[in-house]
Amino acid sequence: MLEDVDPFVGTAATDLPPPTGLAATWWSPKPLVGNTHPGATYPLGMVSACAYSGAYPTGYGRYDLSTEGVPSTLFDNPVASGFTHFQQSGTGAIRKYYNYVRVTPMLEPLDALGARWDLLDEEASPGRYAATLGNGVRCEITVGPKSAVHRYTFPAHADARLVVDLSLGGLAIAHGATVPLRAHLATLGPGTAAGEVVVEGAPLAVHVECDAHRWRQMLWYDRRLMPGSTRLDLGGIRPTTLRPFGLLWAGPTTAGQVVEVRLGFSLRGPGQARTNLAADCGPGPASFDARHAATTRAWDEHLGRIEVECPDPARRSVFATALYHALLKPCLAPGESPFWPGDTPFAFDLSTMWDVYRTQLPLLTTFWPDRAVELATALLHVCEEEGNFPIGYRMARGADRFSRQASALAQTFLADLCALDAPGVDWDWALVHMHNDLRRTYGEDYLLHGVAHPVSHTLDLAFGYWCTGRVARRVGDHALADELARYARGWTAAFDPATGLLRDSTFYEGGRWNYSFRLVHDMAGRIALAGGDEAFVALLDRFFGFGAAPVVQPGERPDAAEMAAGYALDRFEGLNNEPDMDAPWAYHYAGRPDRTAEVVHGVVHQRFGTGPGGLPGNDDSGALSSWYVWASLGLFPVAGQSLFLVNAPSFAESRLHVPGGVLTVETTGFAEPGPGTSPRYVRAAWLDGQPLDRTWLPAARVRRGGRLLLELGPEPAGWGTAPEHRPPSYPDGTAAPHPTDPTSETP
């Protein structure tokens, strides 16, 4: 799988073949660009490193800020002023753009720092990025969990230099820069230096080692050298007083001379940064090859958790890259909390729960439960120290609330972990914070009035109560669970029985149609509220564009009228945005898994592709890519409910290396799919040789491994249509446990 990954996917504006059929009726309001970067990364690691142009939103690439339609360009071709660390992945306007500690190999005087050179001969693979700058220096970067190693091959020159800029941060767009508040920098000896900058309230420390010991080593300030100085201290920096500062090494080079620079990072001071560098890269001085090999092994192990049989190299690449993108965030940095003591788990770049809770977090829970527990414990510490579970959390002081996005999403994640009996979480401690958090922000409106606006928060909070009730029963507090069940039933207040849709309200990045088909914990009640199976399916068909005419997508800088006309379609967004990610699977609950197959087929084979333009929208920290992984495998997680919905996979066979062994998903009647093919339907299923009439599997059963055999065909055959074969619902708000045997009669 490793060799199939293309980190350049999603780095440019969407460039997919014109959609056909059902997919041509979907409308995409959000930016038509993946917003990813091809930099060097480590699975769920703290550090990334990439060429820096200052473009939005990762610092890599050519684009200006965009929130709708096709992005505008800042640069005509790929350029870079150096190589920075800490990048977002696939996000939009999140206001914290990192790109700290720029390293620039130069043949020019220091006054030229900040100039952009052409990026030539770019290469990228998991754990490595390489390019040649227009000044002739070949540049390679790899990273470890808390470190980066750069290798530069210089041409012959009388006075080359390697410049480290600690003052840079953010992007070269309006209001995109990050200004450090305080900084200090010191040389420790030949080839060694350390510093710390306080950015966005977080103290970021770096320990730097360079193997060019015969070169001159100097500090610099305001692009002027400071010969003889060994320390630089700055305080009270403001945008009006900021002057660039850093250190450099300079000296003559022969053609092909190689210089390595190693950087260890920490949020707990230069001493720990030095320790982190030694742990990641050894004693040095040279460490690029060893660090790259170790990072490659880590990526190979992570990507090897899922194997697929596919003769098409393009589809293999799309899948492998999606799994790769799903494992970039959040950044897990154990023992690195700068805000509270103790060697506890710490995490940042949760960007945001609203994006990742449906797809990416279930991926961690299923395949890497130990990392999921690490993240959960970090979130519990955030809640304990800062008073709320975050919706978004950055390498910055205080949680980003993003309060309008959603409520109670950490409860969903924790409920899944609890139901799987994942070790390592103190569930009594977790329950206290889960319960208290439900009463904060929009939760107060929900308690007082039975509804919260945006009305999607009413669904969030009702489900949060349901999820918290699962944990209450797990720890034996049945009285609390019964109390929570009453509030879990409040989801009905969000809907208008006259339309079968959500009530009129404000909505975050969508409308009531986008939010009306999320998978609540009582889908049977939801369908009844809409008027029954036929009425509910008719609403879904209308939403997904069955029988509708093709639509025109927004162009560059669309005006208000163009966007208003598109929103008025009330149409599925084709995975361009998050609110309706789980809507295709709502058909399962009405006995129409065939419709799910048709919609998912259109998304998987027409909304994802190879190359820089291969994503239909912002990848949002792997949320979009995780959706593709699940949909391609024919298993979709219902977040918080610990079950998977079964659909026709897009591979003849796949092997999922889960905690209990290997789950093999095999097919008969498989036909190689593509954009112009018709969908295949599940006609019958068997689990470990026993007939599986239900369209779902408990998550605990998936984690045990086994053999799932799916008979596929060009026409549906009634599989999963009977009411008793549909996924479970919980009308009384009680969070009953799921059975481990999906063929049992007890839901």
Automatic annotation (TrEMBL):
One of its GO terms (molecular function) is hydrolase activity. PANTHER family: PEPTIDE N-GLYCANASE PNGASE -RELATED, PUTATIVE-RELATED. Keywords: Hydrolase. Residues 714-747 are annotated as: Disordered. This is Glycoside hydrolase. Signal peptide: none annotated. Residues 272-713 form the Glycosyl hydrolase family domain. InterPro entries: 6-hairpin_glycosidase_sf (IPR008928), GH-type_carb-bd (IPR014718), GH92_N (IPR041371), Glyco_hydro_92 (IPR012939), PNGase (IPR050883). It holds the Pfam family Glyco_hydro_92N. Residues 5-167 form the Glycosyl hydrolase family 92 N-terminal domain.
